[in-house]
């Protein structure tokens, strides 16, 4: 696996790429992509970092795994390519967005516009084998993405972390809550949302209130 990550992030994460775990991870991912269909496409594995430079990170949303169906995953958590049916969690994200900030439900499920405004859409695991959810977990990706979160926490100020669901909430331990803002809620998946743990969290408007209070541009969700 060639680590073609944006220069602003390379400067921050260079030490990670040189550690033994990352060398093993790179070898594993290369083997998987050679032997199996995997997602996202190789050039989009680090897309979250390509669209949102380190200097511009204002908000971090943490997902767990890329989508594992054809043409879905594009390297941004919860996001799908233009023209692809919206998965259940994304439908609930857009419903909450509509209720919270009054923006009409969008046609495209591609979240690149969020990323380009400073929202890092980070999956804990950046690759997956087709039709096998979680197949690339515990191979080293989590170590890398935890290092990303720690780097943001240590080297930036006033970032808003949106942690949705139990898995994402565990990442609070990596964040200096004296320097940053953490908003938590249930996961947008139907199982959680339909039990009342997602809808009405108002994270989109709350996030923008924090950004405005910090003299930062709000996100156009």
From TrEMBL:
UniProt xrefs under HAMAP family: UDG (MF_00148)
Location in the cell: Cytoplasm
Name of the protein in question: Uracil-DNA glycosylase
The keyword Transcription belongs to this UniProt entry's keyword annotation: no
Record organism: Galbibacter pacificus
Reactions catalysed: Hydrolyzes single-stranded DNA or mismatched double-stranded DNA and polynucleotides, releasing free uracil
Protein role: Excises uracil residues from the DNA which can arise as a result of misincorporation of dUMP residues by DNA polymerase or due to deamination of cytosine.
Family, as annotated: Belongs to the uracil-DNA glycosylase (UDG) superfamily. UNG family.
Keyword Cytoplasm tagged: yes
Organism ancestry: Bacteria, Pseudomonadati, Bacteroidota, Flavobacteriia, Flavobacteriales
Active site residues according to the UniProt entry: 65
Taxonomic superkingdom: Bacteria
Enzyme Commission code: 3.2.2.27
A single GO molecular function term of this UniProt record: uracil DNA N-glycosylase activity
Keywords, alphabetical: Cytoplasm, DNA damage, DNA repair, Glycosidase, Hydrolase
Signal peptide start-end: none
InterPro entries: UDG_fam1, Ura-DNA_Glyclase_AS, Uracil-DNA_glycosylase-like, Uracil-DNA_glycosylase-like_sf
Domain Uracil-DNA glycosylase-like as annotated: residue spans: 49-211
Main location, first listed in the record: cytoplasm
Pfam families on file: UDG (PF03167)
PANTHER family according to UniProt: URACIL-DNA GLYCOSYLASE
């Amino acid at each position: 696996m060639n680590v073609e990550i944006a220069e602003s992030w390379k400067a921050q994460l260079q030490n990670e790429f040189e550690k033994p775990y990352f060398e093993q991870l790179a070898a594993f991912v290369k083997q998987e992509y050679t032997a199996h269909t995997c997602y996202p496409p190789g050039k989009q594995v680090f897309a979250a970092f390509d669209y949102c430079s380190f200097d511009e990170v204002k908000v971090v949303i943490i997902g767990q795994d890329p989508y594992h169906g054809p043409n879905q995953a594009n390297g941004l958590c919860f996001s799908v390519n233009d023209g692809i049916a919206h998965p259940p969690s994304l439908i609930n994200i857009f419903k909450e967005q509509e209720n919270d900030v009054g923006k009409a439900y969008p046609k495209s499920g591609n979240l690149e516009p969020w990323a380009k405004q400073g929202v890092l859409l980070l999956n804990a695991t950046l690759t997956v084998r087709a039709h096998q959810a979680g197949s690339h977990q515990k191979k080293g990706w989590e170590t890398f993405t935890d290092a990303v979160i720690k780097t943001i926490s240590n080297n930036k100020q006033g970032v808003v972390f949106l942690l949705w669901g139990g898995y994402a909430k565990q990442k609070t331990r990596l964040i200096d809550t004296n320097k940053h803002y953490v908003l938590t809620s249930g996961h947008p998946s139907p199982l959680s949302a339909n039990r009342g743990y997602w809808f009405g969290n108002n994270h989109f408007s709350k996030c923008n209130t924090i950004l405005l209070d910090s003299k930062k541009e709000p996100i156009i969700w």
